[in-house]
Amino acid sequence: MELIKKIVFVLLLLTGNILFSQINCSINITTDTLKICAGESIQINTSGNPYKIDWTPTNNLSDATIKNPIASPPSTTKYKLRNRYTYPDERITNGDFELGNIGFTSQYAVDCSYGSIEEGYYCVNNDSKVYYATWSDCPDHTSGSGNMMLLNASTAANVDLWCQNITVNPNTEYAFSTWITSVYTPNPAALQFTINGNLFGNVFNANPTTCKWTEFYSIWNSGANTTAQICIVNQNTIGEGNDFAMDDISFKPVCYSEDSVVVAVYPNVNVQLGADQKICNGDSVLLKSNQPSNYIFQWSTGANSPNIYVTNAGKYSVTIDNGLGCAGSDTISFSALPIPSVQIEPDTTLCFQFLPQYTLHSGTSALQYTWSTGENTAYINVSGEGTFAVTASNGKHCISTDSVHIKNYCPPTYFNLPNAFTPNGDGLNEIFIPVGESIYEFQMLIFNRWGELIFESKDASKGWDGKYKNEIVENDVYVVYYNYQEISPKDGSKKEIKKHARVTLVR
After folding, report:
1. Could you give the residue range(s) of every CATH 2.60.40.10 domain in the chain?
2. Measured distance CA(453)–CA(334) in Å, rounded
């Protein structure tokens, strides 16, 4: 435990033959370092008799004036505890200014004229507002209706605002204190104590809120001194503002004790297992906690390692503690991926002379496809015969395969066009249509004797029923233009045929 103590047991304080009893003001913080998680609070415990307790900093403490406050710092903070017992042997004369402007000296001049106090002047009075309309109407600290010392500080540093010569006991610690308040908000006063011309203690600042009295003090050891000139000096060199009041200046023997504690704040564990995933049952997926290996891990599977492998669908959670009670948790869900059901088109025979490409589909949805052609899409286009296989995968244990054989064969073309038909409703020879097989790229146009196009077809399986505009045409001879592509039965070569003929329509 860091322990800084300045404990003086004043066995005998003689002022006018008055004897004061010994005081033990020793106070100890029971633990050097307290550990909490971010957002938590902890009570600081001390031992010893509390007198005037003063914790610094005061931020994030439940009460900076009690022995065992509750600390809630957002980050690691060192708190200093000071315990002070001030003996009733006051050495200051007229420290509360109730006797008026006597008993002290100042390098500032007196100016109590109503309406203004110039820089570098002071006045002892019970009314702060009469000098400037912008000054707040602040009561004194002693009683709320008594005197105080009002100052309009100058821009000169280390100028004595208040001084007094006193007698002191050798080798005794004294508390030199004063209460100050701003009476005008801008540039609050910055003051410091001096003894025998030497600065001591820290610079202290008035609260910027007006009429808010705050005590400042420092501890001084008299050493071999029997007298001392004690002063309060100005350290604020800004002219605008710097207007304040002092009251209840005190210099008393003191029993004083200090100690400190560090409240260490550790971050909570932020556990992020990531977004929910899908898994092929039987496959292994690594779950990473992304936390230091010296933390404490508790997985829902019972594992206590930083990372685990999961092999089946379900929910998995982990709670991670940094060893100081700062813990975090997260849960991730895995849904099962199905085994793909691959089903390519059935085996077939195609004539690639008239079919530039043929599309093969895997027939399923999967995460990965692997075709025997090296492609990995859900479907591929082929332009020749062969055996084509695909494997669809949702994981090592979720695989399905299928294949198809395609033969390239172009059967010889047979084509014959009738020269007459009888669309009379007897069910015989009702349609004028080509007769044949393996007819490719077919087109047929039929014209009447006036050259009017009355029928057109690009499908060899669809013929003319003898109607034009839904009306049966007259018996007559009609001109037929037709063309198609054929495969030669002799050598299998591809050939384009363009011809015309006549057809007689008879009812």
Report:
1. 268-336
2. 67
Preceding omega of 57 cis (within 30 degrees of 0):
yes
Q: Specify the residue for token string 């080798």.
A: 171
pLDDT of residue 114: 85
Q: What is the CATH number of domain 268-336?
A: 2.60.40.10
Place of tokens 């009733």: 88
Which residue spans of the chain are classified as CATH 2.60.120?
109-162+176-246
Q: What is the model's pLDDT at position 15?
A: 39
What is the spatial order of strands in the sheet that 296-299 belongs to? 277-279, 327-336, 314-321, 296-299
Is residue 261 within 8 A of residue 192, CB to CB? The reply is: no
What average pLDDT does this structure show over 475-496? 91
Q: Is the pTM of this model over 0.70?
A: no
Alpha-carbon gap, residue 245 to 215, rounded angstroms: 12
Under the banding of pLDDT at 50, 70 and 90, the label for residue 35 is: very high
Using DSSP's 3-state secondary structure scheme, residue 462 falls into: coil
Q: Evaluate the CA torsion angle 29, 30, 36, 39 in order and state its sign.
A: negative
User: In sequence order, what are the residues at sequence separation of 6 or more whose Cβ sits closer than 8 angstroms to the Cβ of residue 421?
Assistant: 429, 430, 431, 432, 466, 503, 505, 506
CA distances (Å), 366 to each of 275, 279, 342, 376, 399, in order? 20, 12, 9, 11, 9
- 109-162+176-246 maps to which CATH number? 2.60.120
**Whether 414 contacts 450, CB under 8 Å:** no
Q: CA separation (Å) from 244 to 4, 117, 210, 250, 360?
A: 34, 12, 9, 18, 92
Residues 469, 470, 475, 481: is their CA dihedral positive or negative? Answer: positive
Question: pLDDT tens across 273-287, in order?
Answer: 999 999 999 999 999
Own/partner pairs, 52-55, CB within 8 angstroms, 24+ separation:
52/83, 52/84, 52/85, 52/86, 53/81, 53/82, 53/83, 54/81, 54/82, 54/83, 54/84, 55/79, 55/80, 55/81, 55/82
The pair of three-digit structure tokens given for residue 412, joined into one six-digit string: 């010889």
Task: Tell me what pLDDT residue 12 has.
Answer: 37
How would residue 19 be classed by pLDDT, with cut points 50, 70 and 90? very low
Which whole number is the average pLDDT over 236-257? 93
Q: Tokens representing 315? A: 């929910």
Q: Output the CA–CA distances (angstroms, integers) from residue 154 to 118, 121, 159, 160, in the order listed.
A: 9, 8, 9, 11
The b/e string for 175-188 (b: 16+ C-beta within 10 A; e otherwise) is bbbbbbbbbbeebb
Residue 20, pLDDT above cutoff 70:
no
Reported in sequence order, the residue ranges of 118-213 that DSSP labels E, i.e. its strands, are 121-125, 148-152, 159-167, 173-182, 190-195, 198-205
Q: Which amino acid is at 107?
A: Q
The highest-level CATH class for domain 414-505 is mainly beta
